[in-house]
């Protein structure tokens, strides 16, 4: 409010502003200064009183706010609302206008001339708060924005979470299952070990239940809830059955409901028809449930490499899956095989299978022909199988081919073992998407897709990336291109162990 005596007391009587103004108006003395008085907060009568006063001293006071105004004077101390109002007036260049507190006006009246504008007179726009720089260790809710190596500093928690996740998966509670997998993934990304739950309060994806489990483990060294599940007969049986190649949770559940509790129960049960994959799964159970080493993976790579180069000199072969992420052991070995000549990849897998069979190395093969349709949009789902030609194999791996020898069970004197191998064969122009999709981890892939859809309005899968806003497919020849399209920092394969 204005208290300075210079402008005198407020007029007691309401005088007609126009008349008063006109009657007392002086010839304009200061042509460069064109004042506009903001009525908001000031009030109508006070505004007309100040207008008359200024005009009587030779100032130009405009009745309307237009581009000719140079000095806007306001009694509104709420600069944000004043500026919001000003911005709504559609002036050509608001930055050319001085927005001033009434103190500039009263100073000018006292001096009888426009006083130079000082900082204290300015009513400044409150700039939108600059986005807070993320604290250095802020952890993203998206696995594709975290760097997760194979070094897990929180295994005691993540192992427990995995038991719970599997338990919920067996009970068809997918939401809870995912919650525990997400929580485990966040903890895996930490370069430090959690020592108290308070340290995790700024982390995403950790809820009441996961925190309670962590507390239990921190206090007692174990979780009773997890132990209960581990000793639960149904859970144990389902876990045993699903460890067989070709047996999913549904089949395991079916067998359990029939009262079957062990492999010998299943194999002795008269009514049970095992499919080809399950038969091989039982036949090679010991071998394929034992981890594959990096040296074994390399030896398998050599076998596949030799086979594809018999077929075409333009072959492209890449190790993918867990071994590409730097894991020392895997449950299988994953490869992408294609050729530089677009279209020639169609017969590639069939030919490779044929060669492996002739070499006597093929113990099992399930070939799935391509159903890839180039015109189709990528899947909306966060977890969806791709449509490229692929095969799930069990190969015979000779000990002599493996540097340092085979991973063998105790007492096993054979000179070979069975190894699970996956091959996928995309057209070469889909190579980058396939490589990104098959490198995993599953949680990393899931979050790449979720990030693309939720944060970028894009659809990503193993085939393509589609921009829904631009309505176009985005091309990529490297994984880096895809991260760039998504506006994501590049994450190295060995940092994708989410
Ligand atoms: N994958 C896929 N489509 C399939 C099979 C696998 O897209 N039909 C992808 C998975 O999403 C995963 C990657 O291929 O990211 C590797 O799958 P898998 O071998 O099951 O897992 P790994 O991460 O390699 O783990 P492991 O070391 O145990 O083999
Ligand atoms: Mn794998
Ligand atoms: Mn695999």
UniProtKB/TrEMBL annotation:
GO terms for biological process: DNA modification; double-strand break repair via nonhomologous end joining. Residues 25-122 form the BRCT domain. Gene3D superfamilies: 5' to 3' exonuclease, C-terminal subdomain, Beta Polymerase, domain 2, BRCT domain, DNA polymerase beta, N-terminal domain-like, DNA polymerase, thumb domain. The keyword Nucleotidyltransferase applies. It is found in: Nucleus. Its EC number is 2.7.7.31. Coiled coil: none annotated. Its cofactor is Mg(2+). Mg(2+) binds at residues 332, 334, 422. Keywords: Magnesium, Metal-binding, Nucleotidyltransferase, Nucleus, Terminal addition, Transferase. GO terms for molecular function: DNA binding; DNA nucleotidylexotransferase activity; DNA-directed DNA polymerase activity; metal ion binding. InterPro entries: BRCT_dom, BRCT_dom_sf, DNA-dir_DNA_pol_X, DNA_pol-X_BS, DNA_pol_B_palm_palm, DNA_pol_lambd_fingers_domain, DNA_pol_lamdba_lyase_dom_sf, DNA_Pol_thumb_sf. It catalyses: DNA(n) + a 2'-deoxyribonucleoside 5'-triphosphate = DNA(n+1) + diphosphate. Residues 16-25 have a biased composition (Basic and acidic residues). Its main location: nucleus. SUPFAM superfamilies: BRCT domain, DNA polymerase beta, N-terminal domain-like, Nucleotidyltransferase, PsbU/PolX domain-like. Residues 1-25 are annotated as: Disordered. One of its GO terms (cellular component) is nucleus. Belongs to the DNA polymerase type-X family. Template-independent DNA polymerase which catalyzes the random addition of deoxynucleoside 5'-triphosphate to the 3'-end of a DNA initiator. One of the in vivo functions of this enzyme is the addition of nucleotides at the junction (N region) of rearranged Ig heavy chain and T-cell receptor gene segments during the maturation of B- and T-cells. This is DNA nucleotidylexotransferase. It comes from Fundulus heteroclitus.
